[in-house]
Amino acid sequence: MELEELRALLARHVRSDETTAIDGLYIARVERSGPPSADMSGTVLAVLAQGTKRLVVGDQVHEYRPGGFLVASVDLPVTGHFVDARPDDPALGFALVLEPASIADLLLGADPADLPRARPGAVPGIAVGDLTAELLDASVRLLRLLDHPRDQATLAPLVKREILWRLMTGEQGAAVRQLGLADSGLHHIARAVRWIRDHYDEAFRVEDLARLSGMSPSAFYRNFQTVTAQSPIQFQKQIRLQQARLLLAAHPHDVTAIAHRVGYDSPSQFSREYRRQFGTTPSRDAHTLHRPVPTP
């Protein structure tokens, strides 16, 4: 069974830093379920061969299991964790970075009749699905190349191209195709997403972001919520809180200064929203994050 072979290949080739010899391919093994943690999704295809992962994006909860996948076509703030992972039953999966240029190249050479009909408007930036037999087969063949270094430079790009094609023509293909279209609704929203990420400490008006995205304010707001599962203000709040947590790990005694640095005028509001996001106060979390890891 190919899922079992995929599982064995992942277990054999996983490294502590999750990298592989194939560019853009990462393998993860998680032996313990921790509390949900905040991160950025990246633009990836993530496939699970063993275990269950639960991911929260805005007001949406996504869960996928062995033989399932998640595709992220926009780099979004997410909160997630693996469910019931244990040393004797770890979660195993791989992530493949989605490159817009590779998708655009496939779209350019494809016959439009071979692609599913696109629905108007933006699509969600994150979606889950089940591997088709063809997509699973291509995934296994990509992982097999890790056992054949001589073949990787020639064959890995071809298999990755096949994986992209299977995604683009599959159930979640609309989001993947939009990633390669310079004038797609998702591409315009991604422009606003990048602006908020780069200027998370600044106030903004929705009208200005709508203008940056080439949309009316009402269309922009509607499409932003479709792609990110949250409003622009909620999105900015998540980015601010994630950045604050990174800063607190390095500067645990500067809670008030960090609150101002990430854009909060009110330290009490920062503390309330931080606790709502991470389940503890900034000062307590800073102490935990900064605590030295005991050596064996």
TrEMBL record:
UniProtKB keywords: DNA-binding, Transcription, Transcription regulation
Q: Does this UniProt record's set of keywords contain Transcription regulation? A: yes
InterPro entries for this protein = Homeodomain-like_sf, HTH_AraC, HTH_AraC-typ_CS, Tscrpt_reg_AraC-type_HTH, Tscrpt_reg_HTH_AraC_N
SUPFAM superfamilies assigned: Homeodomain-like
Transmembrane found in the keyword field: no
What residue stretches are annotated with the HTH araC/xylS-type domain?
190-288
Please give the name of this protein.
AraC family transcriptional regulator
Species of origin reads Actinocorallia aurantiaca
